[in-house]
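WP5 quarterly update. Target: Trk system potassium uptake protein TrkA. Source organism: Methylomarinum roseum. Length: 218 aa.
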Amino acid sequence: MKVVFIGASSLAVATAKLLLLAGHEVIIIETDKAVIDELMESLDCVFVHGNGSKPAILKETEPTSIDILFCLTKSDEANIIASLVARSLGFKRVIIRIEDPEFEHICVELGLNDTIIPTLTNARYLANIAAGRNILELSAVIRGNVRLFNFVVDEADEGPIEELDLPKQSRVIFLYRDNVFQPTDADTELKKGDEVVLVTTTGEYEKLHAKWSNGKVK
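C-alpha cells (predicted):
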C-alpha cells in the first residue's frame, strides 16, 4: 500500500512509523525543510518539500498510484483545500483532519466523508469513560466490510426517505436536522440541509460516494 501525508505533524509521523513497520510505502509532503532534514534521520520514506495544496506538488506523488492521502497539517482551511485539489487529481481515498467541529458540516457538503475531528473524538471518548460506557461497543459491532456513509440532502433528495434510490445493502439509520439527532423510519420526510447517515458495505460505499459527492446528486 502507498500512503501520502500532507504535513509532518506528530500524528502524521506516528502513523507513518506504524505503516513503515508494516511494510507499506510512505511519502510525506512538508513545507519546512528543516523538519524534513530532521525526520530523514529516523524515517525511511520519501519526502517532498513543498505546499501540499498545490497541484504541482501533489502530482509529484503520482496520485493514481496512491491508496490513501492523509491531509494532516495544522490548518483546517489548508487541509480542506488540499483534499479538494487531491480529489480532482484522482487520489483513490482522501482522509482529512480538522480541529474545529464547525467545519464538519462543510466537509460533508463537499463530499469529504473521511473526516477526522480529534478534539470531538477525544471529548466523546472521555465523556463515555466518565459515564461508565463501553467505548469499544461500536467498533465491535461495525466490522468486516461494513461502513458508515453520510451526505447532506439537496433539493433533488427532498421528500419521503423511502424514495431514495439506494443500493440493495444500504440503509438510512438516522439523520441530523439542524445538528439535532433524529431517528428515521419509512415515513420520514427529508428536508434540504439534513445530514443523513447510512450503513452500507465497502462495495456499495463507492456507489454512494459517486452519487452524493460534493453533497449533490450526479
